[in-house]
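[09:14] KT: can someone run the structure on this one? pasting the chain below
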Amino acid sequence: MPRQKQYDEEAVIEKAVQVFWKHGYAGTSIRELESKMGINQFSIYSSFGSKKGVFLRALANYKRRVKEIFLSDLLNSDGRLEDIRKFLEAFVDSVRSGRTPNGCLMANTAMDLDTHDQEVKVQLTLFFELLQAVFLEVLTKAKARGELSPQANINQYANYLLGCTEGLAVTAKVLEKEQLEDFIAVTMAALK
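[09:31] RB: done, structure tokens below
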């Protein structure tokens, strides 16, 4: 008869997200995961198979949290471009205020990891497809409202916003507030 788990998998994965977000995949050891997750190495391997297994679950959990927390206003948008501006400003504020000082776990992973790893690439792709779809939905509504030119290619705009968001994920950690405001202003002007 298998042993009953003495921990909540979602809670330990949330702790793993924080470790990977801070140190990256390569900079995180099994010992550190063991310490921060509050479970032993046997339980890590038993539940997740490997450090990479923990990482893949952490990426999936991060994506879910981003959708529930950071994207909620955009998901409920009635298609105002101002909602995109507010999203970008809130993201920058989140990084600069220290609430998410490490930027975006997915952007960090894309820069840090060998993206020839198909399982990691799948998680990155799913995350970027989520962002692109959310932008596409808002832009579709904005175009219908007349906030965008009838000739606007909303697919291109959604892809552009995806790149801008991930660029902000990196630059928000180092650029000055005025520079980031300029970045957002030019991004929004490009949509007109």
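[09:33] KT: thanks! The two ends are 63 Å apart (CA to CA).
[09:34] RB: yep, looked fine to me
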